[in-house]
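Sample entry (309 residues):
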Amino acid sequence: MRPVITVSKLSKTYASGFEALKSVDLEIRRGEIFALLGPNGAGKTTLISIICGLVNPSTGTVRVGGHDIISDYRAARTMIGLVPQELTTDAFETVWSSVSFTRGLFGKAANPAHIERLLKDLSLWDKKDSKIMTLSGGMKRRLLIAKALSHQPQILFLDEPTAGVDVTLRAAMWNLVRSLRASGVTIILTTHYIEEAEEMADRVGVILEGELILVEEKTELMRKLGRKRLTLHLAQPLQTLPASLAVYRLQLANDGHDLVYDYDDALGENAGITSLLRQLADEGIVFRDLQTAQSSLEEIFVGLVEDRA
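Predicted structure, serialized as tokens:
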């Protein structure tokens, strides 16, 4: 399947000399949810802004649905809906008129049924006649999503969409995202809530200092980089570990009451658990319970950032 977005050798240097993007290559698959992760200033918003036609690249090309974003701007931009970080709306417009006007900007015929469905899905229907200035911050964020979807785009960019949104509304918004993906819409999101990317994304890209350092299937990324931890709760605390256990690189925790073993399934170390438990028995070390945990996407991301520092 051909990618819906193709980014090739994309760079951006601002007039100040700041190099925001450095030869970025990226392909986004049609119908996927792609999470773009990176610290503040990494280049996430610049990359999104260039793809959406809001910022001109210094070098490189971007094609959206086969359309070049510069030479065929109108066709490319019509395919895209963008939910920006900043709340930029006319405070004196009503919710209904604002969303309807945005649809008209893309040359779409009026479709009151579509606008009504959007506002109901985003819990804004009872505010349809309210002026934007009267809305709460969370409602304004939902309004931005409604405006981005007003012209029924095939691709939706969500730049920190749940910043400042309460937990209940955040869950409702992600349910909407899932339904959009199910209908064939491609979703590209940036988020500070990495647990959202872990739950929602099909693939993950990590951008640091303008460079796209990693693009991977989420499950494969967690398999490759996510370590597992076995914690043994000991029947009797230990002050020190027997020398015979040094090969396992164990750690004592919780004042000697817990024994921690970090291992990596990708390296076949899971088999080491059996020999570890056997050797503990030989040493007379008894445990009363055990538990395992796997690295989260956040821990993997933090590790990548620290490795590049």
